Amino acid sequence: MPAPLGLGQIASKSRVWVIWSDPRDKSMLMAIVQQCLSLKCRVTVISTLSSGHTDSLSLQEVKSESIYELLPPSDNSTIFKAAYELATHWCDAPAVNEALVWNGMQLGKMAEGILPSFFVGVLRLVEGVLRWVEHERPDLVILTRRHDQTAVLFRQVMEREKIAIVFVASDLRDRVTNLLETVKGQLLFMLLDMRDVLVKGIWAKLLYVYNQLCKRKNNQGGPLAVFVGFDCNHYKHILPVAEYLQDKHWQVLVLQGLTGQSLFVTRNARRPGLSARTVDEYVTVELWLRYRAARRQIRSLWKQLDRSGALAGFFVYHGVKLWPLLRKHMQYCFYVYLPTAVRYIGLASRVIDQESPKVFVFGNDSCHRGLAIIAVARQRDVPTLVIQHGITANPWGYVPHSDKMIVWGEHSRNAIASCGVAREKLICTGAPGLDPLVLLAANETLLAQRSMAACRSLGLEEATPLVLFLTSAVSDNYQAPIVRMMFKAAKDLSLEDRFVIKLHPHETGELQERVAAEVGFRPRIVKDIDLWGIVAASKVVVTYSDSTAGLEALVLHKPVIAAGTGKYQSIYANTTGLVYQVGREDDLKASLQCLLSENFVPDSSSLEWFLGPLDGRATIRAASLVATLGGGVRFDAHESKDYKCQQIPT
Length: 650
Known about the structure:
The protein is an alpha/beta fold. Helices cover 47% and strands 14% of the residues.
């Protein structure tokens, strides 16, 4: 096989890194590796792809590692903190700060919640490169591309460290690839524009006519709490609170934050007796025209800043220039997120004018839409509250922007307080969305009935010690290696007759079927089954390290194994004594054998420290706090670890 372009200069017995960042380069990668091995070089393939791609290389003579392999979970907090500092730093820059103002509000601040999620991935990549250089300095680094983000990053670091770089792809080929990616990105923005003009414009006119015909306005006979959510998980924890307040004669409005799904009530907010609307029901032609003008202004500003390079200087991390890695993310921010924030500023003003709410309650207040509503609420002296919607795996992702935050347990309170948030702002109530499960766990008769019904639906004996695998709606690239590891371990332990996969509602099961055929293992794969019933019938529950499904199994006193790839920190990282965390097949088999042979019950005190009080009254405590904020009742945050219920004004 001839040497790939640029490899003629490799010295025999060199220490070589081959960087793999695109699956399309696999054949070239294999040719490079073979050429290096023929020169008796010590080769390490370092991949910036998911572990599923890395596993597919099958390089027995070569060390193949992830770029993130050397990053311990403890680094996540440092990386998230740096991401938030970057997001704050650019918003405070005069070039952005003075130009991005709308209705007296700094629009750059609206992106502080969404930008860190973009920055974290890039910062992890930078940390990974720096850690690998520190761990093992190569004589030569080989890159299959010259212009992609990975190549730009490695070139900066290797030039600083005076390590030789070889590009094996022709410059022309790489430029063409880069051009195609740019065209693809521009096409995406064109499609977004078409959606705005054709879809949202028509939608706005229809809703304007609809509102004029209906002239709907609530009867302001009592305090009005407006509940705002942006996905299913948010509604899981805010709707029980809304229903409880309505039972106490509060006027409650559920505001569906997602747009264009239904003219009246969307699926997530459809509860008997609750008033629910989409935000677009408050749109007017005037608001729509102002939104379009703001969008043109913001995009024009982006072009000026991009041409002048005014933003590049604000993105430097450990001496590495991040702008080439972040530019696409920032463009998307200017083209999509900031104009959307302008739109929500107008909609929030309309909601306050029309409904006169006493309090806003959020399922998540960190996104650009939530931050826009909070900014308007502050201008109009309307208090705000956010309810924790998931596990605080990394507390920086949960830093509240509202006046107060309901957290589930002391773990979350301590973690978020460590980010600089005042403890009196964080109120521990327990998880409202888990109250029904807590009450079910306490009802042994009903739980046994649901367990038997789940077993009958599978054609299994009630006493069968099931191993339940709960999947999640994540990418196949992430899932595949975990599913493969799970099936191999279950096959080796002869668990075929009692191994059940409960698919996530958004999954088809195609991946699981394909991997099962590869491994030669035949699990039972089900989708429509009582989740809590099948969990109650199980001996052990296995799920992904980023899935909250393990929480529900813990509440039902089931041992949980959280399986991951090691690329990211598990959301169960701080659940010592509650969850078995595994990343390798041997550890998974050992954990399964241990839990199947013993009667393991999660420690209740550890579970309460993590999830908060498990007495089925979290909803009442949360509703009491909403009433306190909206009804003018004095609230002392230091009164009790668990918020004491006060009389709710009616």
